[in-house]
Automatic annotation (TrEMBL), chain A:
Top EC category: oxidoreductase
Family: Belongs to the dihydropyrimidine dehydrogenase family.
Annotated catalysed reactions: 5,6-dihydrouracil + NAD(+) = uracil + NADH + H(+); 5,6-dihydrothymine + NAD(+) = thymine + NADH + H(+)
PROSITE patterns in the cross-refs: 4FE4S_FER_1, 4FE4S_FER_2
Gene behind this protein: preA
Protein name: dihydrouracil dehydrogenase (NAD(+))
EC code(s) of this entry: 1.3.1.1
Oligomer and partners: Heterotetramer of 2 PreA and 2 PreT subunits.
MF terms in GO: dihydropyrimidine dehydrogenase (NAD+) activity; iron-sulfur cluster binding; metal ion binding
All copies of domain 4Fe-4S ferredoxin-type, residue ranges: 336-368, 373-403
Superkingdom of source: Bacteria
UniProtKB/TrEMBL annotation, chain B:
GO MF entry, a single one: iron-sulfur cluster binding
Reaction(s) catalysed by this chain's protein: 5,6-dihydrothymine + NAD(+) = thymine + NADH + H(+); 5,6-dihydrouracil + NAD(+) = uracil + NADH + H(+)
InterPro entries associated with the record: 4Fe4S_Fe-S-bd, DPD_II, FAD/NAD-bd_sf, FAD/NAD-binding_dom, Helical_ferredxn
Pfam families per UniProt: Fer4_20 (PF14691), Pyr_redox_2 (PF07992)
Protein name according to UniProt: dihydrouracil dehydrogenase (NAD(+))
Positions of transmembrane segments: none
Enzyme class: oxidoreductase
Every 4Fe-4S ferredoxin-type domain range: 33-66
Length: 422, 455
C-alpha cells in the first residue's frame, strides 16, 4: 500500500492534504473536526495585528452551471476577525493536542519590518510548524496596503520574505497571488528573499454574477458589492498552469511548492503533484462537502498510486514537468483523428453540431431506417481538434486515435512557413 | 347460471377519501426543483428525434433548454406555437410511443428518457401571460365553419383566427372540447382543464362558439358550404362498434365512452353506480381507461378480455402496466360468444370462446369455452364514423368508412376540409395527431382563402 506520509520542507504530516488558510481553519473547533476527519495539516486562517478586522454579512457567492453544479465560489471575507491572542492560544493548544499534524500559521502584517518582527516572535511561541505569508488576498486587504498589494510587487515580496527569514527560524512559505501577468516574477522574488517554499494560487479577482432584479453583484451587502476572491474547481486549470510554469523554469524549478486551486478530488491532487507540487491545500471542496472528503482524497490517491506502483508521492512528483513545453516545440507532424464507437453512440448528434457549426465539418450524420442515425467521422477532414470528444455525453464513445503520417518530428522552429526559422 | 341472480351495481362503494385519492391527478405537475433536474438532463440533440416523433413537431430541446435557463414563458410559447393544445397533450399523449420513445436517453444502457410530457406540462402550468401570447391579424373578411370543437377543431380554429379569419365553431354537445371534455380518463385531466384550455384558445378572438348544434340536425353541410367560405369537419368517431351480442332492453352491456363521459361529468363520483364484477372487452387505451376507472370506483374484480395476444394490443405497454398496477386482470386469446341474463333482463355473465391463429394467421375458435360472472360488461372495441350527419347534404367521399382527405386535409368537396379521428389517415387516433390535422388543414384553408382574395 502506498505511503501517503508527507514531508514538505521538513514539515511532516500523515498525508499530503492540508486545509488552506480560509474559513475552515478559522478556529480550533473547526481545526479539531478537520483533524478528527483525517486531514494532514492546516494553514490557520490568516492572523493580523490587533485591533482585529471586522467582516461584513453576506460573504460568499457562487458561479454555477445551469444544472446547479458549482464551478467556483468567491468570497469577500478578510483575515481572521478574532483577537490575535485567542488565535495564538488556540494554535498552541492545537499543536499540543495534535503533534503529528502540520499546523502552519498564515500572516498578514503591515509592510514594516518591526511589525513583522513582533508578530513572528509571538507566532513562534505557539510551536507551530511554519508560517505562510499571505501576499495574495485580493479583496479588502490590498486597500490597506497588504495582501495582494504586496504580492503584486516583486520587490515587496522579496523584501518582506527576507524580513521573515531574518526574524524567525520557522520555515517560510510565500503564498502567491494569481492576479499578476507573470507568476515567475513573484516566484523568483520569493526565492531571492529566501523563501523555503511558495504556495499557489491564492484567489482570483472576480464578480460571479449580477442579480438582474437588484442590479447588484453577489455577495450583495445591502445592494452594494465588491470584487471577491474566486476559487474552486474553475480555477484549477489556472493554478496548474502557474505551478507548471514555476516547475519548468530553470531559476525556480528547485523552489518547493504547495499546490492550491480547486483541488476537489484525489486526481486533482495527483495532477498538482505530477506538476511538481510537494503537497496540496484544499479549501472550497471542504466548504462545499465537509471535512469527510478527506477519506475520498486519501483513498483515491492511495489506490491510484498502488495501481501505478508509486510507493510515495515523491515517486511521481514532477513527472509531468518535462513534457510541458513551448508551443513552438510541439510536433507538427503528429496526427490524431476522432473515432466514434457505434456500439455506445446514443445518436444525440452533439458531435455533429459541434463539428459542423464550429469546427471542420468532419462528421457526417446519416439517416437510416426507423429514425436510426449514424454519426461517422470523415477522416480526411478531421484535424484532431478533440471538440467532438469533449461534447460527447457518453464516456469513451469518441476516442482520438493516432494516425501514422510517415513524417518525422518537425516543430515550428523547423517549419518552412516560419519566417524566423534559422 | 341462475336466472334469479341479483346484479351488484352500487354507488358509494368507497369512502370520500378513497374517491379523492383514486381520482386525483395520476401524473401530477412537476415541482420547480423537479423541472430543474429534469430539464438539465436533456442533451439538446442535433436535429432531435423527439421533434420528428411529435406529430405537431414541437421544438422540444428548445423548450426544455428554456425551462433550464429560467425562461418558462419562452418555453410555453415555443410549445403553443406548434401545438395550441400543448396543455392537454402534455397530459394525455402516450409519450412512451412518441417523443419519449425516441429520446436518445431511452437507449441502452440508460433507458431513462427525459420526462418530456411532464416538462411540457410544467412550462404551460407556469405560464400566466397578461395577454394572449399570439396576435390575431386584421380581419380578413373570410368566414370559416368548423364542425366539432374537439382537439382538431379547436386547433384549426385558433390557427385560422390568428390569420384574421372569422371562425364559427359548432359542436353538438353542451360543452365544447370533444374527447378532451368527454372522453379522457378522469385522473389524466383534472380541474376542468378542457374548458380552461378552450377559454385560452378563444382568447385570440374571432372565434364564435355554437354548442348544441349537431350536423345533420340543426346544422347542414350544404348550408354551411354556402354560408361560409370554407368548412372544416372534425366530427370524431361517434358510433360504437357492435359486438353482435347486443339485445333490446338488455341492461349491463355498456359502451365504454358513455361511462367515461359519466365519470368525467360526475359532480360526485360516489353517486356513480358501478358493478362489483366488471368485464371489459377490447385492448386499446379506452379499454384500459374504463378498466382502471371502474376498479378505482370500487369494483372488486375487473377483467379485461382481448381476442388476440399482448403483442397485438393497441394500448401502449405503459398503459398495460398501469392496468396491472391497478389490479386489472387481463385475459388474452378469448372472444365473447354469448351473454346470460337474469329474469330482469340484466346481464349476469358472459361466455367466451378461446381463440388462436390458424396457419394462415387468421383468428379461429379453439372450441373451448369459459364464463365470467359480470355485473357490467363494457365494450371498448373501437368507434366508427357515423355518416348520418351528412343526410340531406352532399356527402364527401369516404375511404375505409372514414372521410377521405388529400395531403392538405381537403375532402372531395370543393370547400370542405376534414381532420381528427373522422378522417382516414396513416397515424394513430391521438389528441396530438388531431391537433396537427387541424393545424395543417388551417394552413391549407388559409392558402385557399388567400387565393380567393387575390384571385
Amino acid at each position: 500500500m502506498a505511503d501517503l506520509t508527507n514531508n514538505f520542507i521538513g514539515i511532516k504530516s500523515p498525508n499530503p492534504f492540508w486545509l488552506a488558510s480560509a474559513p475552515p481553519t478559522d478556529k480550533a473547533y473547526n481545526v479539531y473536526r478537520a483533524f478528527d476527519a483525517g486531514w494532514g495539516g492546516v494553514v490557520w486562517k490568516t492572523l493580523g495585528e490587533d485591533p482585529h478586522v471586522v467582516n461584513v454579512s453576506s460573504r460568499y457567492s457562487a458561479h454555477k452551471l445551469q444544472s446547479g453544479s458549482i464551478l467556483g465560489i468567491n468570497n469577500i471575507e478578510l483575515v481572521s476577525d478574532r483577537p490575535l491572542q485567542i488565535n495564538l492560544d488556540e494554535i498552541k493548544q492545537t499543536k499540543k493536542d495534535w503533534p503529528d499534524r502540520a499546523v502552519i500559521v498564515s500572516l498578514m502584517v503591515p509592510c514594516e519590518e518591526q511589525n513583522w518582527q513582533q508578530m513572528l516572535q509571538r507566532v513562534a511561541e505557539t510551536n507551530c510548524d511554519g508560517i505562510e505569508l499571505n501576499f495574495g488576498c485580493p479583496h479588502g486587504m490590498p486597500e490597506r496596503g497588504m495582501g495582494a498589494a504586496v504580492g503584486q510587487v516583486p520587490e515587496y515580496v522579496e523584501m518582506v520574505t527576507a524580513w521573515c527569514k531574518k526574524h524567525t527560524r520557522l520555515p517560510v512559505i510565500v503564498k502567491l497571488t494569481p492576479n499578476i501577468t507573470n507568476i515567475l516574477l513573484s516566484a523568483t522574488a520569493a526565492l531571492k528573499g529566501g523563501a523555503d517554499a511558495v504556495s499557489l494560487i491564492n484567489t482570483i479577482n472576480s464578480i460571479t454574477q449580477i442579480d438582474l432584479d437588484t442590479m447588484a453583484g453577489a455577495p450583495s451587502v445591502g445592494g452594494k458589492y465588491t470584487s471577491g476572491g474566486y476559487c474552486g474547481s474553475a480555477v484549477k486549470p489556472i493554478a496548474l498552469n502557474m505551478v507548471g510554469q514555476i516547475a519548468r523554469n530553470s531559476e525556480t524549478s528547485s523552489l518547493p511548492m504547495s499546490g492550491i486551486g480547486g483541488v476537489t478530488t484525489w486526481k486533482d491532487a495527483a495532477e498538482f503533484i505530477a506538476l511538481g507540487a510537494g503537497n496540496v491545500q484544499v479549501c472550497t471542496a471542504a466548504m462545499l462537502y465537509g471535512f469527510k472528503i478527506i477519506n475520498e482524497l486519501c483513498d483515491g490517491l492511495s489506490n491510484w498510486m498502488d495501481s501505478k506502483g508509486y510507493r510515495n508521492t515523491e515517486a511521481f512528483r514532477g513527472l509531468a514537468v518535462p513534457n510541458l513545453t513551448d508551443w513552438q516545440y510541439l510536433d507538427l507532424n503528429y496526427k490524431i483523428v476522432a473515432s466514434i464507437d457505434q456500439n455506445t453512440c446514443i445518436e444525440c448528434g452533439r458531435c455533429y453540431s459541434a463539428c459542423e457549426d464550429t469546427a471542420h465539418q468532419a462528421i457526417a450524420m446519416k439517416m437510416g431506417d426507423k429514425g436510426k442515425r449514424t454519426l461517422e467521422v470523415i477522416e480526411s477532414e478531421c484535424v484532431g481538434c478533440n471538440l467532438c470528444q469533449i461534447t460527447c455525453p457518453v464516456p469513451n464513445c469518441i476516442t482520438m486515435e493516432k494516425r501514422e503520417t510517415g513524417k518525422s518530428y518537425m516543430n515550428w522552429t523547423q517549419h518552412p512557413n516560419n519566417p524566423f526559422k534559422g | 347460471m341462475a336466472s334469479d341472480r341479483k346484479v351488484d351495481i352500487q354507488t358509494h362503494r368507497l369512502s370520500d377519501d378513497q374517491y379523492q385519492q383514486n381520482f386525483s391527478d395520476v401524473k401530477p405537475a412537476l415541482t420547480a426543483y423537479q423541472a430543474h433536474i429534469e430539464s438539465n438532463r436533456c442533451l439538446y440533440c442535433e436535429d432531435a428525434p423527439c421533434i420528428s416523433a411529435c406529430p405537431t413537431r414541437i421544438d422540444i430541446p428548445s423548450f426544455i433548454q428554456k425551462i433550464a435557463n429560467n425562461n418558462t414563458a419562452g418555453a410555453a410559447k415555443t410549445i403553443l406555437d406548434a401545438n395550441i393544445l400543448g396543455g392537454s397533450c402534455a397530459r394525455v399523449c402516450p409519450t412512451e410511443i412518441l417523443c419519449e420513445g425516441v429520446c436518445v436517453r431511452n437507449k441502452d444502457p440508460e433507458y431513462a428518457p427525459i420526462n418530456i410530457g411532464r416538462l411540457q406540462r410544467y412550462a404551460l402550468d407556469n405560464f400566466n401571460p397578461s395577454e394572449h401570447p399570439f396576435q390575431r391579424l386584421p380581419n380578413s373578411g373570410k368566414k370559416v365553419a368548423i364542425v366539432g370543437a374537439g382537439p382538431a377543431g379547436m386547433a384549426c380554429a385558433h390557427h385560422l383566427a390568428r390569420q384574421g379569419h372569422h371562425v364559427t365553431l359548432f359542436d353538438k354537445n353542451s360543452k365544447a372540447g370533444g374527447l378532451n371534455e368527454y372522453g379522457i380518463a378522469h385522473y389524466k385531466m383534472q380541474d376542468d382543464f378542457a374548458q380552461k384550455e378552450l377559454e385560452f384558445i378563444l382568447e385570440i378572438g374571432g372565434i364564435e362558439l355554437k354548442t348544441q348544434a349537431e350536423l345533420g340536425h340543426s346544422v347542414h353541410l350544404d348550408t354551411l358550404r354556402q354560408e361560409f367560405d370554407a368548412v372544416f369537419l372534425s366530427l370524431g368517431l361517434t358510433k360504437c362498434k357492435r359486438l353482435g351480442l347486443e339485445q333490446d332492453n338488455l341492461s349491463g352491456l355498456e359502451n365504454s365512452l358513455d361511462f367515461i363521459t359519466d365519470i368525467r361529468q360526475a359532480e360526485d363520483l360516489s353517486n356513480l353506480p358501478v358493478g362489483n364484477k366488471v368485464v371489459v372487452i377490447g385492448a386499446g387505451n379506452t379499454a384500459i381507461d374504463i378498466a382502471c376507472q371502474t376498479k378505482r370506483l370500487g369494483a372488486e374484480q375487473v377483467t379485461l378480455v382481448y381476442r388476440r395476444g399482448v403483442d397485438n394490443m393497441s394500448a401502449t405497454h405503459k398503459e398495460m402496466e398501469f392496468a396491472r398496477q391497478n389490479g386489472v386482470a387481463i385475459i388474452t386469446w378469448a372472444r365473447p360468444v354469448s351473454i346470460f341474463t337474469n329474469n330482469k333482463h340484466q346481464l349476469i355473465a358472459i361466455q367466451f370462446e378461446r381463440t388462436q391463429l390458424d396457419d394462415a394467421g387468421k383468428l379461429q375458435s379453439k372450441q373451448e369455452h369459459f364464463e365470467l360472472a359480470a355485473d357490467s360488461v363494457f365494450k371498448a372495441i373501437g368507434q366508427e364514423f357515423d355518416g348520418q350527419c351528412f343526410s340531406g347534404s352532399e356527402a364527401p367521399e369516404l375511404l375505409h368508412h372514414r372521410i377521405k382527405v388529400d395531403s392538405d386535409y381537403k375532402t372531395s368537396l370543393s370547400n370542405v376540409w376534414a381532420g381528427g379521428d373522422c378522417i382516414y389517415h396513416d397515424g394513430e387516433d391521438l389528441t396530438v395527431q388531431s391537433v396537427e390535422h387541424g393545424k395543417q388543414a388551417a394552413y391549407s384553408i388559409h392558402q385557399y382563402l388567400e387565393q380567393q382574395s387575390h384571385g
